[in-house]
Amino acid sequence: MNTLEGKVAVVAGATRGAGRAIATMLGQAGATVYVTGRSVRGNPSPMERPETIEGTAEQVTQQGGKGLPVKVDHTVEGDVKALFEKIKEEQNGQLDILINDVWGGDPLTNWDQTFWEHNLHDGLKMQKQAVHSHIITSHYGIPLMIKRGQGLVVEITDGVNYNYRGNLFYSLAKISAIHLGKAMAHDLKKHRITSVAVTPGFLRSEAVLQHFGVTEDNWQEGAKIEPHFIASETPYYIGKGIAALACDKNVFQKTGQVLSSWGLAKEYGLTDIDGNQPDWGTYFDENI
Asked: Which residues cross the membrane (predicted)?
């Protein structure tokens, strides 16, 4: 396992949750990380949450990397193109790691409605934010990797299979991320660029902690509301896993695969920040 000193990463959708933690852990390994998203200080995104890309970039730098916040709406082609032009100029065209984590679909998902009852605008907007944005970002980012004949592309998804996920629009978005990882792996194989999809388990993001009225210090109390929350994990669990993946000299052997936070933790000997090693996959199979 090598450190990531001298490596350049883009974490698209790094304002909060898994994206923030992935960026931070890449920084801890020494990477220069372009932290992108829509929420900046003084001008929050429509999610109306307090986290910002500047806050994430500061965490990256505090952990030993170099965090560079860039405001980008990844559904806007011009924004994405400008981001990679900036990287071409500032990093001499170097891009080693691309994380597609743009989501924003939680407030758009109604779990109690069938697809014909569901708000169509919200459902289509979910595809724009969580699928189209990933395609646009890879379209402009991956050519930088091809020029250098190396790189790692990670699609963040939910789940390791193609099974229905309880809502047509949500399911379509998350399964699309898996297929993007697999399809890009096919096209990138001759260039020796790795493309994978990675899923967290039940994620204790900032928004989820707030939803259950708990903090990271007393998160177990949330299991009184949702029993399955007892098997949850922090965003840093998948962050550690992806950082380890990026450090692995043999990562290309995994191209085209669907990986998980718990699987990466076992393979690389990782624990969550509380010292535990959650295994959402086993828990899900045995309890849900």
From this structure: none
E strand residue ranges, 173-228: 194-199
pLDDT tens for residues 112-170?
A: 999 999 999 999 999 999 999 999 999 999 999 999 999 999 999 999 999 999 999 99
Asked whether the beta carbons of 134 and 156 are under 8 A apart, the reply is: no
**Amino acid sitting at position 45:** S
Greatest distance between any 2 Cα atoms in the chain: 52
3-state secondary structure of 273: coil
Class of domain 8-287 as given by CATH: alpha beta
CA distances (Å), origin 80, targets 38, 87, 92, 141, 284: 12, 11, 17, 9, 37
Please, how many CA atoms are within 13 Å of residue 71, restricted to the half-sphere of its CB?
Answer: 9
**From CA 237, how far away is CA 272, in angstroms rounded?**
5
Report if pTM > 0.85.
yes
